[in-house]
Amino acid sequence: MKLYQKVFAVIAYEGMSGLMRRMIRKFYITNEESSNDESSKVREDYERLVSDFNARALAMGYGDIKKYYWYHTVDLGNGLVTPGTYDYRKDLPRFQFPEDMSGMNVLDVGSATDFFAFEFERRGANVISVELPSIEDWDMPHGKDRQLTLENLMAYHQVSTIEEVQYFHLNGPFEFCRKALNSKIRRCHSTIYDLSAQKLGVDAFDLIFVGDVLLHTFSPLRALASLAPLCRGTLIVSSDLANEGYGEPIMRYIGGEERSGDNRSWWIPNRLCLEKMLKRLGFKTVAVVGHHTGVLRPEGHVYDRSIIHATKCEFPLKLCTPSEHHSEVEVSHGQTATHLHTGV
Prior knowledge:
With 344 residues, this protein is α/β, with parallel strands linked by helices. The chain has helices at 3-33, 36-59, 92-95, 115-122, 144-157, 162-180, 197-200, 220-227, 271-280, 333-340, and strands at residues 105-109, 126-131, 186-189, 205-211, 231-239, 251-253, 267-269, 285-295, 302-311.
């Protein structure tokens, strides 16, 4: 596709605001990642945050937690803030969650340190957090590739068993935060493929949040198909979207032909692919409502993720409360495309 054709395609699917966002992002990412000084500063700042957090936690009587991995930045009060790889606090408005979630049943899939789950609970929701039963349940190729990934994780945490990795990487940090926040969140251990109403103890959810999970699955469609029957309101997905294949649904493979990077990322759909999958699974409207951009710590890589709302009711999320699941109305492609332009 020639440059002018790509520009026209972006305008057609994302509007002028989408084109401007792409141009700014390309300039920003190119300059950020080419700057060793900036990356070094991010790493230094992160190491300082980790050191300060560990010292403060120790002084407050929490013991030695140096082996914990903090996926999310979570404010635990009393000046104690976890040094997360991701800090989503300033980006919360971009996700367009309801301010008042009282009485809503909410499912947070792939919760990690549970920043979003704790936020849903703070807003009044009844929350179930989902994480893997074991690190070994990550979608990884069998054989030497898989073994090397697990060995690297054990080396990172300075432990000798997978059970210890599971504790320091996922379970320990969550329990630490849950106790500090006096949270009532219930955690369910399951792969995304095996989720069911029976396993969760809830027939359906008013809101399901899936943050940065689909790219780590071997089968994104199967993963979404497991969630669709559980959602009676809105599914919110945070995901990379491939910038290609305008007018055609494309799923781009990013796993490479040999080990590199995090070794646990496999697929990125383009916008149309994700939209068609979700509509095939029963969602009536699918809209990219915004984006969130930040810096991955401590590496300093810049990320840019799309925020997608898929609904099974005819009203926007803020009106789609537990008592308002009215008849579903099909929305035309033209209406959906118009919605895609808002908030971008």
